[in-house]
Amino acid sequence: IEGNVVTGGEVIAVEARGNVVDAPKRLVALLGVEDLIVVEQGEAILVARKDRAQDIRLIVEQVKKRRPELA
Questions:
Q1: How far apart are CA 32 and CA 41, in angstroms?
Q2: Is the pLDDT of residue 52 over 70?
Q3: Looking at residue 66, what DSSP letter applies?
Q4: Residues 70, 36: Cα–Cα separation, whole Å
Q5: Is the pLDDT of residue 12 over 90?
Q6: Pairing relation of β-strands 36-41 and 20-31?
Q7: Residue 69 and residue 21: Cα distance in Å, rounded?
């Protein structure tokens, strides 16, 4: 999985570099993308640019408001 980090799940990557994937129950297909974070947590999937990792808490807050059963 050239240049990608997979901590859980199965990944097919074509022309994809610098991505981090943690989706233990999913097959994730990456095509032509770079520097993304893909995380599966229960019924939710987060996709974000790595340079926005510090802002993930903003999405977590929105999920807690809209779908508290997922948080």
A1: 24
A2: yes
A3: H
A4: 22
A5: yes
A6: parallel
A7: 23
